[in-house]
Structure prediction request, 1183 residues.
Amino acid sequence: MTTFSTSRRGLLKGGAALGLGFAAPTILTSKAFAASYTNEPKGSTVTFGFNVPQTGAYADEGADELRAYELAVEHLNGEGDGGMMGTFSSKALKGNGVLGKKVVYVTGDTQTKSDAARASARRMIEADGAIMVTGGSSSGVAVAVQGLCQEVGVIFMAGLTHSNDTTGKDRKANGFRHFFNAYMSGAALAPVLKSNYGSDRKAYHLTADYTWGWTQEESIAAATEALGWETVNKVRTPLGAGDFSQYITPVLNSGADVLILNHYGRDMVNSLTQAVQFGLRDKQVNGKNFEIVVPLYSRLMAQGAGKNVNGIFGSTNWHWSLQDEASQAFVKSFGQKYGFPPSQAAHTCYSQAILYADACERAGTFNPCGVVEALEDFEFDGLGNGPTLYRGADHQCFKDVLVVKGKENPSSQFDLLEVVEVVPVANVTYAPDHPMFAGGDLGSCNAGV
Amino acid sequence: MIEKTSPRADRILLLAFVAAVLLGPILLAPFGAGYPDLLQKFAIFGIFAIGFNILFGLTGYLSFGHAAFLGVGSYAAVWSFKLLSMNVVPAVIFAVIVAGLFSAVIGYISLRRSGIYFSILTLAFAQMSYNLAYSVLTPITNGETGLQITLGDPRVLDSVSNDGGLPVTNLFGLAMNQTWETALLGMTLHFNAGFYFCALLLIAAFYISMRIFRSPFGMMLRAVKSNQNRMSYTGLNIRPYMLSAFMISGMYAGLAGGLLAATDPLAGAERMQWTASGEVVLMTILGGAGTLIGPVLGAGIIKYAENVFSSFNDQILAGFFDFLPDSLASALVWAASAFVGDGWQLTLGIIFMVIVTFLPGGLMEGVNRIRKWHEQRQRGNDLSSCSAKPAE
Amino acid sequence: MDAILLQILNGFDKGSAYALIALGLTLIFGTLGVVNFAHGALFMLGAFCAVAVNKLLSLDIVTLSETQTTAWGTPLEIRTPYAEVWFGEIGSVLVDYSVPLSILVAIPVMLIIGVVMERGLIKHFYKRPHAEQILVTFGLAIVLQEIIKAWFGANPIPQPAPGSLRGMIDFGAAVGFEAGSVVYPLWRLVYFLFAFVIIGAVFAFLQFTTLGMVIRAGMADRETVGLLGIDIDKRFTLVFGIAAVVAGLAGVMYTPILSPDYHLGMDFLVLSFVVVVVGGMGSLSGAVLAGFLLGILQSFASMNEIKQVIPGIDQIIIYLVAVVVLLARPRGLLGRKGVMES
Prediction:
């Protein structure tokens, strides 16, 4: 056993010992030996791993993420119009790939299941030599894959994940999140709700019964209670309940005058559609119009819920109707390639790919520890949300948050949300040890090997 | 299920199996399946399917809730990593014991019914486990996110290291994620410690299953399948036999669950969902229920489709067809992309339909037909007057 | 009290869907002896009949605007539905009523799908073990849903109920409660009545027609009926067709309640098997009874008062009831001896 190197990815020196002597000329001896970190790129290319849901309920979201990644790879390699690379405040990227290496990518299907997502990520890392993994469309998957990346020593650039835990309790040194989170949703929404609905309201929560739903419920309830709202009830609903009527009818006569739907994806589409069907929006309670709030919105969800979203408030990470230079450049580039505007998931994934590449370029290495150092406390602008900080203490992005409302008269099938307010970053910033995010430990960066 | 059952044939089968498993990293590399994660999955789901086959293949009792045992096995193993030690041995033992106890309880209740009623009872228990693990039992299971190891875990038997990195699962110091890589004919071969740990247990599991199939106990279980009433009329109480078979197969599932956690320390609730239970049923039937090797083959095909077909994107397909003229290549890429990448489940569905329609006994029937055809042709050379009819 | 009445209504509504799916499933189970894992897919296909009809009716004429452009610089597309261009006012009424109209389309379409499925695939599996039936129908279900996904995407597609059926009805006032205390969506009552009619029609068909009699005889003893010189196979094809139509119609009318997506069938599959088995294999009335029972129990279990006593009960109630029923009554509520026990 003494011939085995003790490093994790050592090399069996005596290939002949395995009866492979006949193949001796082709035995590589350089690969693992000289590597100083997991999957150090040796050739003229560098491989990114795009791990998105391709089957299951979020397949359309995943398809949009993949489109954004393909666009980002084009731009990194100097093809296309460059998109947000032109507006990005850091000018390290030159359009010749990353550190002179052409970017190639591999894809995988997370199925929105932790197991499948990890299996798929491990394939990219073990078989395809991916230097980083990015993507995903749920917090469960993000936390699972982030844990894996920490263990094997590659960087994880989270896709769509909104739970506080991703950069709270489950934060990891090798993982970064560009997307906003439940706390920020609450902090951004509450003042807008107050100015529209007043400070004397009784709220009823319907919450998806799993970790994301709970953090969302906790955040929104805390934010609205701080305004003087009263929380009448918090009811947990099973994931994928389909028909929510049995949870909605108790709302009718509960005395509440606001219903907050802490649901996402299909659950949100169904619960909102059914809440409207039960006439909640036509109701008068305590002399006020009954209102529904959906804290986390996405355009695809709004599409699924159809006309039911009209006038309903929520928050979102980014929207294609934003008028700043960077957003417009991205929408132009994406729209010209695919014929429709990008979703917020696409924007986040595009940004993550660019941010990672830029960090490598600035660090001068693909070594995860170098990348972590380059990203921590990195301040930038020109990626669509105004000045942004990647905070070093928890690897969470801090930027303006959008409060949106379902549009009354959409001009096209994509024009479903209108931006009501851009909440400045200062209003949604919290301390890294805020109670809702406590209990986590970044640990130290892991470069593998 | 025509199988040779002489001890000599069994020995050959076992040796061939051992050789195939141990050479897995070499044999599977040309198919793009020779990387540690998938090799481990092959071995683990092979164990799961072998165990399922002991119940279903022998007794005909179709459990639709076997994933629950896999799930509790995983949770037990991860808790062992969190509380005791990162050593995989206690984790795997703990997983098997917990799954065994859990299956004893569920088996005791479910086996009061037979046929589809038994299937629905097992399904109901598994779905209850899944739903509760996802929500109410979150303090134990960590719900949606899945149970993972963290820096703050006590791990009373391990010495504390303070380098800030997560500890890795190991077998008395041999890290499960340790891989020795080498190149052969342009392919990278991965010899992974975790895989060989699973592989040895797969071989043991296969050997035990073979012994059970050939034992009087196995005969008794087969008798249950062929005519349960007659068994009861002879005054024999079959319940203890059935319960033992159910528990053995539950412990196999627990072992598989423990190994999943040992090679990748995470336990998620989806492992217990009905689709996961359905998957092992499909693996077993696809390969050939009641055969020894069949379930392992079925497990391999389904995991291969899930992991490799799903990874083919347009870029890779374009690479396949780039020797063709552009227009033809892009047409082929377009057509092929319906079946791989995000369409991988379509391919899997078609495989299910084709195999069960044309090979009622699963893949093993195909193997047997080829063997018979081969034997008959040899015999036909000797006795060319006999007109051999193909097996139907 | 009004809360309980509302939950009973919810239960009946859920129960209608469960009963309709289980009815078709148990027809196939009971008559043909086939475990049909593609039954949920038939429900989903029905729902997509409604989507397809709606899409057809609202097909657009696309003209490019000369003045307006999109955010990415191409001319804005202005869409006007053909139906409105051709039929004017009537056209928009047609679009509004697309869900009920889809029934007319779904009946022939689902019948054809059912017959093709039976003739092309299922009939080869009558004598095969249940496990192989499961494998082949599960494969078929995956193939069907993947085709729908390739065509319509994975996102749910909203199907609003017709405007005139969208409102609320004061149900409480009709049965003597204070006005406004028990209001219920009109469409859900429509769905309940619709289910009632379909279930009644299926029972009447089996009870009062010669064909129905043969089918019932076939359910009781298939071989004897075959020996009597009746071409049972042709009748069985029809049974499969009817089951497909029932599942499909259940899907069509359910779309305003649940926006359909390609995965809809799988979500109902396990549940419908539980309903069938709880009702008792081969018993049509058992399936209907169990459907309503489970629907109502599920609604009650979701009430806060009950969830506070037993946390998580709404997550598992269906399965818990299944276990209890099967332990207390070995063959389900109304099952007969000897059906599907081996």
Summary: Chain A touches chain B through 66 residues (CB under 8 Å). The two ends of chain A are 19 Å apart (CA to CA). Residues 210 and 324 of chain A are 36 Å apart (CA to CA).
